[in-house]
Amino acid sequence: MLEAKNNDELPAIPGKRYFTIGEVSELCGVKPHVLRYWEQEFPQLKPVKRRGNRRYYQRQDVLIIRQIRSLLYEQGFTIGGARNKLGGEEAKSDVSQSQQIVKQMRLELEELLKILRR
Asked: What does the CA dihedral 82, 22, 112, 93 come to, rounded to 10 degrees?
């Protein structure tokens, strides 16, 4: 099992529309087989499937995966408990996702500002 890392220590999410399972694995600190398993357990997680059944995740999927990871690895929830928590917080998750997106954008803008000041 992976070490429980704080989501703040995870890499920034690039400004792309779609991510492969390998990219999501690196962005979220979770192995690909775990992501495939979580797809079966969490109805909120539905990556787009294209040619050859390849998965393409969107930014919202990455945010949900990070939230699931936090619930399971950091907060100690079971799969069922995390599923219930996510299901019961769908209204709150929109606000939470928006806050995470704003936080992510702010970090990216601060990085750009550092580069521009050089």
From this structure: -20
Within-domain flag for 108: yes
**By the 8 A CB rule, do 67 and 77 touch?**
no
Q: Which of 49, 44, 22, 19 is nearest to 33 (CA)?
A: 22
Q: Residue 53 has what DSSP assignment?
A: G
- How does pLDDT run across 9-26, given as a tens digit for each residue? 788 888 889 999 999 999
Average pLDDT, the chain: 85
The count of other CB atoms within 10 Å of the CB of residue 63 is 20
Q: Rounded to the nearest 5°, which phi and psi values hold at 9?
A: -85, -5
> What total number of domains does the chain contain?
1
Q: What is the rounded CA–CA span in Å between residue 29 and residue 39?
A: 16
Show the domain range for 22: 7-117
Global confidence as pTM: 0.68
The answer to whether residue 2 is domain-embedded is: no
The CATH number given to whatever domain includes residue 69 is 1.10.1660.10
